[in-house]
Amino acid sequence: MIARQRLTKPDGRALVLYARRPFPPIEAAPAPGIEPGRDAHLRWHPLLREWVVYATHRQNRTFLPSVENDPLAVTIEERRPTELPRGPWEVAVFENLVPSFTGQAPSPPGAIVETRPAHGVCEVVVFTQEASGSLGALPLPRVRLVLDVWADRTEELGRLPSVAYVFPFENRGAEVGVTLHHPHGQVYGYPFVPPIAARELAAQQAHLEATGRGLLADHLAAEITDGRRLVYRDESAPAFVPVCARYPYEVWIAPRRAAPRLPDLTDAERDGVARALKSVLMKYDRLWNRPLPYILVVHQAPTDGRPHAEAHVHIEIYPAYRLPGRMKYAAASEVGAGVFTGDATPEDQARELQDVGIELT
Amino acid sequence: MIARQRLTKPDGRALVLYARRPFPPIEAAPAPGIEPGRDAHLRWHPLLREWVVYATHRQNRTFLPSVENDPLAVTIEERRPTELPRGPWEVAVFENLVPSFTGQAPSPPGAIVETRPAHGVCEVVVFTQEASGSLGALPLPRVRLVLDVWADRTEELGRLPSVAYVFPFENRGAEVGVTLHHPHGQVYGYPFVPPIAARELAAQQAHLEATGRGLLADHLAAEITDGRRLVYRDESAPAFVPVCARYPYEVWIAPRRAAPRLPDLTDAERDGVARALKSVLMKYDRLWNRPLPYILVVHQAPTDGRPHAEAHVHIEIYPAYRLPGRMKYAAASEVGAGVFTGDATPEDQARELQDVGIELT
């Protein structure tokens, strides 16, 4: 069990503080005194049959502020308020000041395609009170706590009628659009099942109906038997470069057992996933002895109350570089056709990651 | 009718030279004396149910060479051979030295997912003999010739049994991964219908079956009636920021008539598309008085010999910047969930493009 305290900011946004052990209550939640954005709406894309989100208050959001203006630092009396209070919390979650989805979104005007308010939730997950560092460099118990927080957000947001799917993620590095260097991730509570998750769930459902088995569980077994692409061996949750990696050094981490969602993971499975995750992130940064930017996403079952026996929660990580100093670009084939092209085999890239020595701390 | 001459390079690759008027035959096609890459194979991605391409010879491809080493310049006697001969040609097409798809791809070893040789074609389309400049800055007749070349490639590659879909595109600017500054685009002949094209075709087919009308033709009519997002008004081929734009300043250009593929366009329609395309590209570069990087793709019907009454050829252009100096990043929501988030409305961005004055030359 983790300890949590829920507060409400003066502007109405939620703040939830987490620690591994109970901590004395914190009196008040600060807010930077800027009106939270709420002008977010959805439009239907008729050719791709998917929703597109417009959040116009995001255009002038904070962009790589100096350390003195870090909104994710704790509030110090003589400076203007930040997003976070002082106190012995370890991980903090608050509603984004410039959300793409918000319960306060107004009804949009009509258009030549269907429109809807962008109801849902966008949260910021602050991994540490330290302004520098990274998720992978945090001690293992803190990485485990981040997993517990993701699971808690999945449960709490999943109970909201406006949320159909909970999506924890981290964009790491300015190369993937990060606008704040303080170690943090985000959680989106989408009001629909997002297209990529829907495609994975449909493939898993088809496999379950055809074979009676889980698609990712079968894939894990095959990756373990093959063995060439395993980056971290763990009884409960291996990490591997998938045989069909679309990004350089792409890694998947999944529990052996086909749990549908993060909250369904046992303590032992969470420990396994945390060890695998920290191992992979440490290997990334030691591969070329420089921080490797990446996009990390959690794919899990929708929060519609159905059991989703087909779903198998897992983490996918997509690094941004194919060689030191050489970005992997998503260009016309990827973006306009949906065909991903790789310059190295998953086997070769897995071997490079296998050869990076690390020690879990 | 355009003039064309087909040659074979010493290394076996095809070269096709184009001009608007007949030109004296060119004697020989040069080649840089590097063995063409052929080590390309496909693997099946079981969760996304799509093919991923691995072309390992691409890892060390030429990266932003100096003007003296421009492989797209014409060959000059005292220097080492480039990809192109001297002569009065206007546009040149040759098979990529480092292709993602090639008819020479060998059978790959087996894996825990299905594998196939990456048969197909990757061509480079050189827009001009000038090493600098851009597609949008070329005279209108040259832009029209590029369209004719794309149509010719669609016909020629579409006749190959290994090619299921012809995809002309341009990556413009180092920000979208361009490795050569000489104005050029590419054409991929995919051995399957790519996932994004397949989704658009399925939506068009469903609309045709439900209404008896074309989905994009209906959308064009609605955009024209609405009018707020039109960037270039043309009887035969308007340009507009679509109501559901996923990228900043995204523009679609489509003939009013639902022609399935580029070769099906009439002379008048090609003139209209060329005028619309040049207008949009000129507006892009004058918007902030700096070259705007973009990805340009052509979506059309597969080349499987069926009529494809549902398909409506069109151009989609995705710029890379949302503000001067501020890239639009595809981050976790886009890449890991498939949900695109915009910071400005299509109406506002269309108005900005409308306000940019240009004169077609």
Any key phrases for this structure?
homodimer; about 350 residues; alpha+beta; HIT family, subunit A; 2 domains; eleven-stranded antiparallel sheet; three-stranded antiparallel sheet; 6 helices; 17 strands; globular
Walk me through the structure.
The structure is a homodimer of 361-residue chains. By secondary structure, chain A is of the alpha+beta class. Chain A has two domains: 3-192, HIT family, subunit A; 196-354, HIT family, subunit A (2-Layer Sandwich), CATH 3.30.428. In chain A, 23% of the residues lie in helices and 22% in strands. Chain A contains six helices and 17 strands. Chain A has helices at 140-158, 195-211, 215-226, 267-287, 332-337, 346-354; strands spanning 3-8, 14-19, 40-45, 50-55, 91-95, 115-117, 121-126, 165-172, 184-190, 230-232, 239-240, 251-253, 294-299, 314-319, 321-323, 326-327, 340-342. Chain A has an eleven-stranded antiparallel β-sheet with strand order 1-2-5-7-9-8-13-14-12-11-10. In chain A, strands 4-3-6 form a three-stranded antiparallel β-sheet, with no helix packed on it. In chain A, strand 3 (40-45) and strand 4 form a beta hairpin. In chain A, helix 1 crosses helix 4. The longest helix of chain A has 21 residues, at 267-287. The mean pLDDT of chain A is 95. Strand 17 of chain A pairs parallel with strand 4 of chain B.
